[in-house]
Amino acid sequence: MNIIKTPIEGLLIIEPKVFGDERGYFFESYSERDFTEAVGPVKFVQDNESKSRYGVLRGLHFQKEPYAQAKLVRVVSGAVLDVAVDLRKGSPTFGRHFSVELTGENHRQFFIPKGFAHGFCVLSEEVVFQYKCDEFYHPEAEGGIAWNDPDLAIDWRLPASDLILSPKDQRHPSFKTYNDGLAPRL
To answer: What pLDDT sits at residue 153?
Structure first.
């Protein structure tokens, strides 16, 4: 696998080795041994999958301590713009985000360590999205930040009129509201 570092420490793009021929393709989507060697030890405990249609925006979600989650995300079919926002107090990139396009064609994966908000926007007609988590979901630890926060200024690559959000995702607080009193703004 090829590991691509991003400008934000800990966020990694992972490109697996894909073997293709006229029959199709094969790749190892996860190997604990190889992942540990390349990224470090992470014990994933839960796999999730969602299917969404064009314009669906899910996020920006996170789990609060002590149930923060690291995630390894990928697209099985379709395309998304995947976004992670650094929420780690004291991080030099606190409050900054990074985005990557994940598709069923490029087979890229995105590793998001603990301490980040995460979301994605569906760019294709539909998408099947999978992710591994290193902590179980705890509803009482659920948190979120507004997808359209002006301080974050995330370009979701679709017109706002095309976006489809759950009622819960429409009500997340701004980054400033979430952050007030937690850490200095950059």
So the answer is: 96
For the chain, the maximum distance between any two Cα atoms, rounded to a whole number of angstroms, is 57
183 — pLDDT class (breaks 50, 70, 90):
very low
| CA 48 distance to own-chain centroid | 13
For 104, phi then psi, to 5°, come to -65, -20
Structure token pair of residue 180: 């007030």
Enumerate the H helices of 47-174 as residue ranges: 167-170
Cβ of 79: how many Cβ atoms within 10 Å?
A: 21
Say which of 61, 107, 118, 172 is annotated catalytic. Answer: 61
- Please tell me which residue in 107, 118, 131, 178 is annotated as part of the active site: 131
pLDDT at 179: 72
DSSP states of 11-24: -EEEE--EEEETTE
97 is an active site residue: no
pLDDT digits (tens, 9 = 90+) for 74-103: 999 999 999 999 999 899 999 999 999 999
Instruction: Decide if 25 is catalytic.
Output: no
- Is-contact 80 157, C-beta < 8 A? no
What span, in angstroms and rounded, lies between the C-alpha atoms of 67 and 120?
A: 21
Tokens of residue 19, six digits: 């073997």
